[in-house]
Amino acid sequence: MAKSVPVHCPTCHREHSFTPPTFPCACGTPLTLPVPPDASPELLAHRTWRDSWVAVRCPSCDRQGQWPRPELGCSCGTVVRLPVLPPRDAEDASEDVKGVTSPEEAAPEAPSDAAPRPRAISKPPFRPVAIRTERDAVMSAERYLRWLGFPDVRRPGNCPAPAASGVDLCATGVVARVDPTTLPTTLRDIECLWLYGLLDSATSVCFSLAGYARDARCRADDLRLPLFVMDLTGTPQPLNEWADELVRRGRR
């Protein structure tokens, strides 16, 4: 599992713990983007399709591919882009890690007659879907909700919500909107989503690719509505305390 790296928001200076995304290489090896631990984030004021991708070489098959550049959304509304080590630097860092003996490797083996230690059951890491189309954005949000513990997530055709409700996904106890547009999600979008969740006695959740208007964020906080931002890696990041709470509940 990829190790988290500390990232400081250049606007509010809040520290975040960012886990670099992992993608499946064509050879079948999980490929984690090599984000350095001392990463200096770049303020993202304008997103272009070309700059949203980065070349990374697979350490197993030496194949170089294009992957979504990692981004992080801060609760203050700032979106930053994180640097990725060049292919050669990433290989050197990988070799350094291989040469270090882990505590598990250095520890002596337990006697054969010793009682086996109970193994902690950990949740598998979330596997994102790289976002290239609107359908990918909905698919990534659907996969994320399943990962949080909503196995019966379904699309609008199987939801009781009317088409004009702004609901893109629903499950037992939750309804969700996925906004893949390049404009911030509006106050009206948040209020419509919350109203439908209220009628359905469900938690309303919103995923946005371009973030949220200031009044929309304030209203969501008042309504206790979880907000998530998504980057092109397809990894949702919680944007307010209600999203953090939903993640905590889902990871139990």
TrEMBL record:
Report which superkingdom the organism of origin falls in: Bacteria
Q: Biased composition, Basic and acidic residues: where in the chain?
A: 88-98
From the UniProt entry, list the residue stretches annotated as the region Disordered. 87-126
Cite the record's Low complexity compositional bias ranges.
102-119
Q: What is this protein called?
A: Uncharacterized protein
Q: Which organism was this protein described from?
A: Streptomyces ehimensis
